[in-house]
Amino acid sequence: MAETKIPKATAKRLPIYYRYLNILFNAGKQRVSSTELSEAVQVDSATIRRDFSYFGALGKRGYGYDVENLLNFFKKTLNQDRLTNVALIGVGNLGHALLNYNFQQTNSVRISAAFDINKDIANTIQSGVPVYPMAEMKKQLQVQQINVAILTVPIEDAQKVTDELVSAGVKGVMNFTPIRISVPSTVRVQNVDLANELQTLIYFLDHYGSETPET
Ligand code: ATP
Q: I need a labelling partner for 48 at 20 to 30 A (CA). Which of 42, 70, 156, 205 fits?
């Protein structure tokens, strides 16, 4: 995927397409039209065609898309044909929930190592995942070739832990803390602020009900 420059909005839709194609494939379907795909994933068919066009002509007029071809294509693009190990830093309430969550069910991603400063939890196994003390983080990340980390430490430690992750060679951080962390331009951050998302939902409900607001 690193080679193909695609718009961010398209990249965000790829896992949605992928998930649905998997369902079709498992149900034994051989082809799917863009209209059918559109209804299932709630993306208009013109957008789907445009998204797919970034990868060359994948569909045939009057035939639709070959499910297996498309699935294999997405698998490669999304790196789903290999398992990606990620790390989790901070095994608190949220960290525990994420350790329990089965990422592997729909995506080839698994948390293979967790880290925590708390001596009571370090050197234990939680939900099948080994928890290491922070002193071992750099070594473990390098040995396990992990370059993606999920950050679920308290706000006040978020930047410090991020700096340690960066110096250990991590290239992507999924930041569950509500602060914006600073990273060098070579590192990508995905912010997931659950409280903020909920607040946004409530704001839109209060102001617009279920109508789509003007963008
Ligand atoms: P949350 O619900 O946000 O996960 P919590 O209330 O369970 O949090 P927090 O105090 O937010 O707990 O801490 C989350 C986890 O991060 C705890 O397990 C804590 O031991 C761990 N932690 C705290 N500071 C650090 C740090 N500097 N490095 C690594 N882990 C840390």
A: 205
